[in-house]
Amino acid sequence: MMKKREPKDLEANFFSLLSQRWALLTVAEGEGCNPMTVSWGGVGILWNKPVATVYVRPQRYTRGLIDGEQYFSLTFLPEEKHQVAVFCGAKSGREVNKVKECGLTVLRDEPAPYFAEGELTLICRKLYQQDLAGDCFVDGELEEKNYPGKDYHRMYVGEIVAVLEKEKG
Question: Cβ(129)–Cβ(72) under 8 Å?
């Protein structure tokens, strides 16, 4: 059972969640949905709102989906489900139904689909999007290392409109 919480009451360490556990960025796709693994992002306050920021490369299938939707979710799975995140990061929604292949249970009681298997889910309303630009890098090594093909991520900032946490016990 998932319990709604206020963003300000979260005790999660998003540094370790994103870098080690990763998240499933999920966007509606008609009646279905497509999860994509993300490990770059952040959570904080911007424009006096609780927000989550994620980054998606132009060649990712999810990019076209998130551009056309107002809401997205970030679901953090328990450690024992890490292989699901690995699979969803390695496979494209153009070629495979990741939800079916991973046996995920889609929930649709919020504005964006998310997964019952998650320990923590952030439901986000898109506020802002912008492509990263090569000429904006102050540290040129970052661009060289991360963008040799000049395929810059698009940044999405979403207001966290719901926090869902699996009840313990």
Answer: no
- Residue closest to 51 by CA, chosen among 42, 60, 40: 42
Helices (H), 10-150: 14-16, 61-67, 82-90, 98-102, 140-146
User: Is 169 a residue whose pLDDT tops 80?
Assistant: no
To the question of pTM greater than 0.85 for the whole model, the response is yes
CA neighbours closer than 13 Å in the CB half-sphere of residue 96: 14
pLDDT band at 75 (very low <50, low <70, confident <90, very high): very high
Residues 9 and 17: their CA atoms lie apart, in Å, by 17
Strand partners, 41: 54
CB 132 within 8 A of CB 39: no
Euclidean distance between CA atoms 55 and 39, whole angstroms: 9
Return the structure tokens found at 168. Answer: 């313990």
DSSP letter (8 states) at residue 116: T
As a whole number, the mean pLDDT across the chain is 95
What band does 14 get if pLDDT is binned at 50, 70 and 90?
Answer: very high
